[in-house]
Amino acid sequence: MARKIFLVHQNDHDLLRLHPLLEANGYTVEVVHEDAAFSQGEHPDFVLLPWSLYERGRLNLLFLEGIPAPAWIISRDRRILAQNKAAERDWQTKVGEYCFLAIHKGAALRGEYRKALKRGVILPGTRCYFCRADEALREGRVIRCEIRWRKRFFDVFWVPLGEDLYLHYLHDITPYREMERTLRFLAFHDPLTGAYNRRFFFEILSREIARANRRKETFSLLFFDLDHFKVVNDRFGHATGDRVLQEVARAVQSAIRKMDFLVRLGGDEFVVLLPTTSKDEARQVAERIQKAIRTVGERLAFPLSASFGVVEYAQGETPDTLLSRVDALAYRAKGLGRGRIENGEGA
What we know:
It comes from Candidatus Caldatribacterium saccharofermentans. It catalyses: 2 GTP = 3',3'-c-di-GMP + 2 diphosphate. By secondary structure, this protein is an alpha+beta fold. The chain has 3 domains: 1-49, Rossmann fold, CATH 3.40.50; 67-188, Beta-Lactamase; 189-342, Reverse transcriptase/Diguanylate cyclase domain (Alpha-Beta Plaits), CATH 3.30.70. Helices cover 43% and strands 22% of the residues. The strands form 3 sheets. A 5-stranded antiparallel β-sheet has the order 5-4-8-7-6, with helices on both faces. Strands 10-11-9-12-13 form a 5-stranded mixed β-sheet, sandwiched between helices. A 3-stranded parallel β-sheet has the order 2-1-3.
C-alpha cells in the first residue's frame, strides 16, 4: 500500500519539485496549502513543509504549552490542529476533531446547525452560538468575552495567528464569579439570617421616600424586636439564639410579599418596609408576622413573641425621623406589656 504524503507549499517552488520524485518512489502525494495541512481529517504518513513553516509551527506549539489554561490552535473550518496538555486533560479533545464537537459536544449549536447535526450532517459555517473566531480572523484582532456554559463561567479568547488559523483558549472563572456573588450578597445582607442589612435599609428607604414623593404614593414601616430574647441566649446559649433568629427571619419572609423588604438592624431588631401599603394594611401584615413568630416558638418548645411599631410615611419625613418614630412605637409596645402592635395615636 502506497504511503501518503502531504506536500505543504507556501510559494516554495523548490519543495514542489519533489512532487514527481516522490511519486516515482511509490508515494501518494497531495499538495495542500499550509492552513489546510492538518484540517483534512486525514492522517498522512509524512508531511513535508518549508523550514519557515516548520519553525513557525514549532513556536506556536511552544506558545501553546506555555498557556496554563486549556488552549487549541484551530483552522477557519473549525478543525483542531493542535492543543496543549490542559485541553487534552480537562476537555478530552483530540487533534483533527471539529472544535464545536470536541469541546462543547455539539450542545452549543443552534438552529439549522443543530438540526443538521442530528441528521449526521455538518453544514458549512457550523459554529457555536457564542463563537467569534470569524470576527477575530476578519478584523485581525484579539477578541475576548465571558460566557456561561452549563452553570459555569468562562473567560474566552480568540487570537488570530494568520488568515486561516487562530488560537482559542478559555479560563474557568466560576470560583471568582461565585466569590463576587458572595461578596455582593454580604454587602447588602445579614450573613446570619439572610435578611437585608442596615446599610441596604437606609439606601432602599431613601429610594422609597423619593418614589413616594414623586408619585404621591405611600408606604409603611414595621419595626419589631423579639420579647425576652436575652433570656433565650442566657438559658439556651447563643447557638440556639442564632437558630431562633434564622427561624424567625424565614417565618417573616413567608408572611410578606416578594416586593417587601425584611431588614435585620442588629441583635433581635428587625424592620419590614412595605411599599404602597397604608398603616391599616401594615397592621394586618404585623399581625400575620406575630402569628408566624408564635408558631416558631411553639415548634422550638418555648414561648416567643415580638413587640411591633407600625408607621405610615408622612410627606417631608427623612429616613432618620421615620425610623425614630417607628422605633418609639415599638418601645411603647414593650412598655405596655410586650407581644403588642402599636401604630400610633388611637391604636
